Task: structure prediction
Amino acid sequence: MKPRYWFFAVLLSLTLCLPLAASAESGEAAHHFDWMGFAGKAVNSTILFGGLFLLLRKPVAAMLRKTSASVQADLADRRTRADEAMAGLDAVARRLTGVETEVEEIHRAARQRGQLEGERLAADGRVEVERIAAQAKAETERRLDAARQRIRERVADDLLNRFTADFIATPDPDRQQRILELNIDRCGEIHEAS
Result:
């Protein structure tokens, strides 16, 4: 046996013997302090706590080591997760900075596209205005030509009616000849003017 177990074996035997001796003397001296009872209780307590210490020292130490290792592993895991979270926060901060730049780029591109679209619409508008103006001019020319034609036809009809009236109203053949020549000259002038 190991020397410390011998020590506890001796203490155990003393613990068992001392209370017996103390009970024998307790009848003699009831009026003074019982040193033997006190010593017996002290030895009993020492043996009890010493035995508990010897029995529980290794399991308690193992439990404490295991708990300590678990706490250290938990702390290391939390540090790792905290580092990962900080790295994630840094990535989010960089992304947010990038998002602001992206938003500014999107705004700039949208303004540029809007300006180009405005210029394209203005150019299309100018082309459309020119097309409408050309159509209006062509329509105006067509209407003017039609109006001139109607005026010529009316003037021709009026001249013919006048010539017929003058011709019928004048029975003189020389005069009819002059009216005929005059009207022919007028028709030539009208034709040249148009």
Summary: The mean pLDDT is 79.
